[in-house]
Give the backbone structure.
Amino acid sequence: MIDWRLNLRAVIGRAYPRVIGSFREPSWLFFDIFLPLLGIAAFAFYYQALGAPSVFIGFVILGGAMTAYWLNVLWSMAAQFYWEKEVGNLQLYLMAPMSRMSVLAGMALGGIFFTSVRALSTLALGLLIFGIEIKITSPISLLVVFFLTLFALYGMGMMFSSLYLLYGRGVWHLSSVFQEPIYFVSGFYFPVKALGSWVALLASIVPITLGLDAMRQLIFAGQETMGFLPVSVEIVVLILLAVVFIYGARVALNFMENLGKREGRLTLRWQ
């Protein structure tokens, strides 16, 4: 029988350190908000030099803000169980009488809060500094797309957190391999449609690809022709991705536990 109260306490317990930690050192907020603006500014000035419409600078600012979520998923979600194993906490999670999914859910919720502070601040400052006007066509649709993107993206991170344990020290290489290429194929700094239909279709397995595409269509009115798919279609696909990745996280977690019980090396360091 599932103890919902216990699992809820586990979710809160894992989310709490990330929420409190985001305000414990104020200087981190400064660096997390202003340093990403340097990378965004490089692309923004490049578009200005080319004489591109200002909406392209808006695309860059939105994409640059969303990189915070992708980095958080890679380094604070996908790699988290491996790091917990290295410091000796993983065996405590496995022995505790709670669902391991509640641990992952708490990590995801705490990570979303921590990252949103940086991402939304970067977005607001970028739009203000470069004087980009936005016209949201449907605020409700925008919120739906945003939260669906986060659910699907962090569902992917939850699934990867279990799979990364199977690769041991290779986790560093996996995160590095997934980081920069996704910036390109997911269209963080340009409309993904420019890569062609087949590349955009393959990149859509990463939820942030369709999430960014839909948010750009909703935030910058009149730019629907630059979108890869209609917003309604992208919402449906994001729902499917969220279900698939969260279910995949549960399957991968069960597989990880069964493998650990069978081989007895899951909690050994440097494996």
User: Anything to note?
Assistant: The chain has eleven helices and no strands.
